[in-house]
């Protein structure tokens, strides 16, 4: 479960302070699939970074499964993120020079799966499931964009996190790959019972989610269920 | 497949081959420069020591002791004047002397020096009880005048074989086409070829010293006739006047001789007595070479200091390269943090990248130093016949260890910079 209480986030550009995020209250329950939409600069990516503990909010609290991450030290936040969360980005997703399997194994190792065999089994099973059985030993720099995003999904889910945070993972994909990647991600999230927070610009995808959160310059503009046919 | 931090660091540097290759090359060349200077210095010392091992005390005419050593042992430089034969005989007959070996120099064949000596030359040993230093591999030793034994390199370079004949030329240097310098009337016959010794002896031609006497007696007679027959104004231009140090006036003496006294006390007595006499000087090769080594050592120290400076520059370059690569890889480090790597993980990956670079740079540099040394050894061997032996330079170990420690410091500094700034700046970068 994700709880956000009176969170604001600002940053300074010269002498000017810019407020990029303001959320008075937000609760995302277990298994919910939330789409976050809004114009550029409305704080969608910042919201993902704050939930992940990659950056701390200027004010307010973020509580993950009952743990206030603002009260944790950086290494404790690292551990919490590694064990309970899976992250997918639009770009900047995989480590070049490593194979698809190695990218997934890295996340498995840092998430705390101690047994080497278990890590390997989980990683290969997911890559098989995502149709990458003959691409898992290829350097990720040689994969197509769609394949890269599927590897990123495998990496985000290999340790069975309770929360999956996806920052526009389908933004640069063609329509076929967009559908494939989203379907696979949603299917896996449903199977694992994980909470999904999915940032997107694409309003044609919203019907796949249980909830749509719209951010605007002043904060949360709306928090609703998707409209049928959206 | 297990991704240890070592493997991750390795993959990171492998993913940028140009930067990695250049960095490793900078370290390798600097290390090779530093190591090959000290190795060459030590190699030359060892080569000279090995070459001079069979020679005890050298006696020659008054003059430069270095020139005497270089001419007699290394077959370099010009001979000093001659020692009177009577003086040689007197030392030979001295009861304190165990053995003497005469050396007459002054002629050459195609630049290879002809050394007049006697059969005792073949009994010389690097130390008491050791086998003879100079052994015949083909044919036999010379037994009479105008029989010659060739050093291994002389035989190889000139193509002369046992049974072949050649004529010597006057002087220590070969003058192509100057037939007037050649002793055509009295050719030498090759009777033996020596086993390679990897010393200057390999570049010599060894004959009985009486050959020199006869050759120069004959020349003197010819010149005497020519002087009598020539108009007085041409006398000064007549070649082979056989006087002065360059000609080596061998009909009345020898150029130098080796003395093996019976013991240390006898050695010191003879050393002092000979040096006190007006006829000759006695030189202990070890002492003279010690002075030369000091000069070589000083030169090597200066070069070594320069090499350390080059190495310091290399370390700074690596530092900058690493820092720059951190800037480039900041996104990767951010991603690593995002998927669960702790700051320490990233710290160690960056630090181990530097360790890899230094380790590989040092490894290649160490190997390269032997390649450089091999080239130097070949060049010096060809030009001077001083065989620089291959050896394991134990001194290199601490230098490499020191450099690795320097590399670790660089590693920790760059890793700390990453550790301190990675997430904040990555996020700023994302926001921008």
From TrEMBL, chain A:
Gene Ontology cellular component list: plasma membrane
Protein name: ABC transporter domain-containing protein
Gene3D superfamilies given in the database record: P-loop containing nucleotide triphosphate hydrolases (3.40.50.300)
Keyword set, alphabetical order: ATP-binding, Nucleotide-binding, Transport
Domain ABC transporter: 2-227
Molecular-function annotations in GO: ATP binding; ATP hydrolysis activity; transmembrane transporter activity
Cross-referenced Pfam families: ABC_tran
Organism: Hydrogenibacillus schlegelii (Bacillus schlegelii)
